[in-house]
Amino acid sequence: MTASVLSALAARRMEIGPFSPAELKVSPRRWQHWHLKRDEQNVAWLLMDKADSSANVLSESVLREFSEIIAALKSDMPSALVIRSAKPGSFCVGADISEFRELHTEPDVINKLVEAHLLAQHLVDLSCPTIAIIHGAALGGGLELALCCDYRLAVKGATFGVPEVLLGLHPGLGGTARLPDLIDPLVAMDMMLTGRTIHDAQASQLGLIDQLLEERHIGKAVTAVLDKQITVDRRNLRARPFRLDWVRRLAAWRMRKQADAKVAPQQYPAPQALIKLWERHGNSPDQVLHREIYSFAHLLNTPSSRNLVRVFFLREQLKALGDPGKGRHKPAPVQHVHVIGAGAMGGDIAGWCALQGLRVSLFDTEPKAIGKALSNLTELCRKKHRSAAQTRDILDRLIPDPDNSGVAVADLVLEAVPEDLQLKRQVYAEIEPRMKPDAILATNTSSIALDKLRSGLADAGRLVGIHFFNPVAQMQLVEVVAHSTARSSALERASTFVGQINRLPAPVSSDPGFLVNRALTPYLVEAIGLLDEGLSAEAIDQVAIDFGMPMGPLELADQVGLDICLGVADMLREQLDSNLPEAPEWLRSKVSKGELGRKTGKGIYRWKHGKVQKKYRRKQAPRGTQERLLLPMLNACMACLREKVIDDADQLDGAMIFATGFPPFRGGPMQYAEQLGFDTIEQQLQQLSEKHGPRFTPDAGWTAPGWTAAPDE
């Protein structure tokens, strides 16, 4: 009851000036995306309310209406202009990125940006005080809009960021000039170069906002601005040294060095473009504003940015799968998860679910394993910057359950015991009679076909695969695995659960290895083969890193665990009747001796305190090594598409990017294959097959694809 009352009062609790909550729902109105009304002090309250959207974005139509409103205000100037969001969740989350796809040439982009810059300048030049009131997120263009105002008042809990670099861009609505001119230029550049978000207290300390308030004090703060009781010193003393060219050059040299250490400039050109813009023109904000337009226009038309924009929408597509009830009957949310097995995966899955607000019970036959899961969750809370009170609440939600009693009350029972078919069937036989009739039975298996696991179940329709990747707290993708008799309602609810815990679901069929392991294993196996031929592990891994992978295949194998890699490779070789070569004896020997990689401190590499120990003096790998590593992965991806392991190329690309770190600037494996050309890939595989053996035999899909390629962006 209390929650429903609070929900009903949410709009009334928000300070919206002269408006009543009912007025915001009136339709039709003069403006489609804005509400405008003056109060008794002649303050114009302008509420941003993007139509048919849960959050505000700066689309062309939103900006066009804003331009008309600013022109109308100029002809009848108010005593002040207040800009805030009518959306309860946030201020504005930036540009409408879908419109980026409609801009095909640099002149197209320049024309749009010139119009947007003129509008921003009209806001800056208004003769009345302008006040941005920010709650929730102010990101990208949303923050840049607020920077055009004279005052920024923020409600506690607000966050701020300029994340354009994640799209291969830098700010394009004046942020490259106004942010360094307002706060410490080094902090401003760091925000733009990393895309990191800062919270309300940081923003206040930096001078990004003028006052941090409770919502109930907003009205009084607006009056205080009118009465000139709030005055702000805009002299940015920290910016003064950087008006000197030699100071900026020195700072830019350091920035460039740090940026190069994180990403290759030929792969991600945006950081270097931003540094160059500030280094050359940072002594004149007007010049930065002017040059920003041309720099942004150039970046938007680079392959890197086009692919990163594509990846943004791949993420949105996968996120939408986590809300399968949209527009129809919505699956009931999962409130209680029961995890069986507190090993490396089960314990971390339980901890992540508790961190995301679910009630979790955790069973294991070894109490020490449950204790370690609680310890790991405490450390995760520290890394996620949770307060002591928040950490206590999160730990309270993770309930040690040595009696396995949570089975009877859980909405979802997730089994994460070792990869042994008989062991898993034994677990199911014990727990299924105790489960709620509508509860989901999920398995985290990475290699066992669900059609084998369902044998013996009284209700096989509720069994689904929910396959997490290690480390759970970092890997965004979760495979939702179907089998021949799985109920669609169970699969939908499983996908909804994945969305609930802030992860991206990828629906796949229960073919051997599902999607990710099937595509990744040939890549890892080929790396081991190259190691067997005498190449150093460091040289092999560097080839993959140069391609854009976050780490090399051999370091990845150590991260995953050599035992798991070997098990999946053996399973694929057996079940797919594939041409994968046998694992070398030295690898089997390592696994039998317990040299499994990171988790044991020794594998292909040595590991110390969780960090890989590499020898950096290495001979470079020979030409052609990249093709030998990557083409088997692409070949397996094509086979998965042809066999309908996953629905389409977009989902496959998204899954591989968010599960394996396939370079986002390349747009995904199939997008990369499209750019290379299927004929070229087929020919290269054929040549490698003739030279190195049948494991490189081209999949039939390269010459007769049974799927529809995504259109060029």
Automatic annotation (TrEMBL):
Residue ranges constituting the 3-hydroxyacyl-CoA dehydrogenase C-terminal domain according to the UniProt record: 513-607
The species this protein was found in: Pseudomonas neustonica
Region (Disordered): 692-713
Pathway(s): Lipid metabolism; fatty acid beta-oxidation
EC primary class: lyase
CDD domains: crotonase-like
EC numbers, comma separated: 4.2.1.17
InterPro entries: 3-OHacyl-CoA_DH_CS (IPR006180), 3-OHacyl-CoA_DH_NAD-bd (IPR006176), 3HC_DH_C (IPR006108), 6-PGluconate_DH-like_C_sf (IPR008927), ClpP/crotonase-like_dom_sf (IPR029045), Enoyl-CoA_hyd/isom_CS (IPR018376), Enoyl-CoA_hydra/iso (IPR001753), FA_oxidation_alpha_subunit (IPR050136)
Sorted UniProt keywords: Fatty acid metabolism, Lipid degradation, Lipid metabolism, Lyase, Multifunctional enzyme, NAD, Oxidoreductase
Protein name: enoyl-CoA hydratase
Catalytic reaction equation(s): a (3S)-3-hydroxyacyl-CoA + NAD(+) = a 3-oxoacyl-CoA + NADH + H(+)
One Pfam family from the record: 3HCDH_N
Signal peptide positions on this chain: none
Family from the record: In the N-terminal section; belongs to the enoyl-CoA hydratase/isomerase family. In the central section; belongs to the 3-hydroxyacyl-CoA dehydrogenase family.
Stretches assigned to the 3-hydroxyacyl-CoA dehydrogenase NAD binding domain: 336-508
